[in-house]
């Protein structure tokens, strides 16, 4: 597995920083297994001589429904950091969600394909506004508000010198009094669609959409915030049902192969995001590794779709899966 290859090349402190969840690691460890609770129900007598994995998100046509999710400090995995990640994402015809805590400044990242900017709402909202406006000026097509991190659990950050002194000030901390009004505020200052990341409950999903969210992302932050949160494979279906097609629903967490991607789409997701797999690919292969990672997921999805009798993403419906 690419994870073990990354373990071999990364300093132990860096590998642990990327890999570790929080607490007893329950949420991190059950993420992948939760997708295996589902079984496929193949559709017969369908023409799958050609299979298309293409999707469209907010006007961006993508080669497949597999995106590079927001993760911090790619410079710990590769000297070029997010610049190398962006090259790999572009080569794969995918989309990068760039973390606001990237290891490279925007000016050093070749963001030529559609991309989104992940943002927290910080205690000092002026800092948040400057970050968002800079991202929009650089071409960000959407803002992803991470809403599930009122506080950051203490964990050692390797090579802390990568972070600027400002990143440790009180103003740069997440605002623990975050309210739904922040969605509309971000939409106004950015002029872009705002997706809310960290949604695990149907009630919150509806509240976010009612408050102006253009999309929701089912995520438990890779198990890094609150341990024993529900696995995203179990939360996705109820969230998608509650949203009822009003906005796109995306999901991350423990997605290992094309079968998991197909399961997510059948449960109501428009696309999935990869976090740690992209970091492992970056660490072991740079831009080529990131490209290969995304391409492999997409190719495996296409093979699984063909075997399940599904010629296009639009043909994937809820009856394609059932609980095992």
What is the fold named in CATH at topology level? Answer: TIM Barrel
Low-confidence stretches: none
The CATH class assignment is Alpha Beta
The CATH architecture is: Alpha-Beta Barrel
Strand line-up in the sheet with most strands: 4-11-10-9-8-7-6-5
Helix-and-strand structural type: alpha/beta
Annotation, overall tally of beta strands? 12
Number of contiguous helices = 10
Q: Helix proportion of residues, in percent?
A: 25-40%
Share in β-strands: 5-15%
In angstroms, what is the radius of gyration?
Answer: 19 Å
Number of domains: 1
Give a short synopsis of this structure.
This protein has ten helices and twelve strands. By secondary structure, the protein is of the alpha/beta class.
Observed structural traits:
single chain, 324 residues, alpha/beta, TIM Barrel, eight-stranded parallel beta sheet, two-stranded antiparallel ribbon, 10 helices, 12 strands, globular
Write the layout of secondary structure elements.
Layout: H1 2-9, H2 12-19, H3 26-35, E1 38-40, E2 55-57, E3 60-62, E4 66-68, H4 82-91, E5 96-98, E6 115-119, H5 125-137, E7 143-146, H6 181-190, E8 194-199, H7 202-210, E9 215-218, H8 232-243, E10 249-252, H9 258-266, E11 271-274, H10 276-307, E12 321-323
Parallel strand pairs: 4-11, 5-6, 6-7, 7-8, 8-9, 9-10, 10-11
Antiparallel strand pairs: 1-12, 2-3
Helix pairs in contact: 1-10, 4-10, 7-8, 9-10
């Amino acid at each position: 597995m690419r994870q073990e290859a990354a373990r071999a090349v990364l300093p132990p402190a860096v590998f642990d920083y990327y890999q570790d969840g929080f607490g007893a690691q329950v949420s991190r460890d059950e993420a992948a297994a939760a997708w295996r609770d589902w079984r496929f129900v193949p559709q017969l007598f369908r023409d799958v001589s050609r299979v298309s994995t293409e999707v469209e998100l907010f006007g961006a046509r993508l080669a497949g429904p597999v995106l590079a999710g927001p993760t911090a400090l790619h410079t710990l995995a590769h000297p070029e950091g997010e610049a190398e990640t962006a090259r790999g994402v572009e080569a794969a015809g995918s989309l990068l969600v760039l973390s606001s805590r990237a290891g490279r400044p925007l000016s050093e990242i070749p963001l030529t394909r559609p991309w989104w900017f992940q943002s927290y709402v910080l205690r000092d909202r002026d800092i948040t506004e400057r970050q968002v406006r800079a991202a929009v000026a650089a071409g960000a097509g959407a803002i992803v508000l991470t809403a599930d991190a009122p506080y950051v659990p203490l964990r050692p950050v390797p090579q802390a010198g990568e972070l600027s002194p400002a990143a440790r000030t009180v103003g740069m901390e997440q605002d623990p009094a975050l309210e739904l009004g922040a969605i509309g505020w971000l939409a106004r200052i950015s002029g872009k669609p705002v997706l809310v990341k960290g949604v695990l409950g149907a009630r919150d999903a509806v509240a976010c959409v009612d408050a102006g969210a253009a999309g929701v992302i089912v995520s438990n932050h890779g198990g890094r915030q609150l341990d024993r949160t529900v696995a995203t494979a179990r939360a996705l279906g109820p969230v998608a049902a509650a949203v009822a097609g009003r906005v796109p629903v995306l999901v991350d967490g423990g997605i290992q192969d094309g079968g998991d991607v197909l399961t997510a789409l059948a449960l109501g997701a428009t696309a999935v995001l990869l976090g740690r797999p992209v970091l492992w690919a970056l660490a072991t292969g740079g831009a080529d590794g990131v490209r290969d990672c995304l391409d492999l997921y997409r190719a495996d999805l296409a093979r699984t779709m063909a075997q399940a009798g599904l010629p296009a993403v639009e043909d994937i419906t809820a009856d394609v899966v059932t609980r095992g």
